[in-house]
Amino acid sequence: MEADVRESTAPQAPSGRAQRIAERTRAEGWKKPPRRIETSECITCDTCLRSCPAEFGAIFDIGLDVVIIPELCSGCPSCVLECPVDCIYVDEDWTPTEESVWNHIELTTEGA
């Protein structure tokens, strides 16, 4: 019985969203490109942020802008369907997220 307790309390490698945050990479199996928010069209209502499925959690408030982190975005249309101003687009040519944004993400997800 003691062996069972030790096995269940052993630290496990992060999985899913936590792993993508730790590795700062996009899931290989995702077929759709990520989405992006056109900040010049966005009214910062946060509707997209609230509609992004928790298993992705790809949308963040960064200063005055709302952004989609491509490494966390599966390309699903949840945010697009809820955006009142249609400012979310497919991002075929996405670039890796900057270090300062990852630092913000880590601060906002600690303890989550």
From TrEMBL:
Provide this UniProt record's keywords sorted from A to Z: Iron, Iron-sulfur, Metal-binding
- Basic and acidic residues composition bias: which ranges? 20-32
What region holds the 4Fe-4S ferredoxin-type domain? 33-62, 64-93
* Pfam families for this protein: Fer4_4 (PF12800)
Q: Per its UniProt record, what PROSITE patterns does this chain match?
A: 4FE4S_FER_1 (PS00198), 4FE4S_FER_2 (PS51379)
Enumerate the SUPFAM superfamilies for this protein: 4Fe-4S ferredoxins
Q: Does this UniProt record's set of keywords contain Transmembrane?
A: no
Disordered: annotated segments: 1-32
Record keywords: Cell cycle included? no
Which protein, by its recorded name, is this? 4Fe-4S ferredoxin-type domain-containing protein
**What species does this protein belong to?**
Streptomyces marokkonensis
Highest classification ranks of the organism: Bacteria, Bacillati, Actinomycetota, Actinomycetes, Kitasatosporales
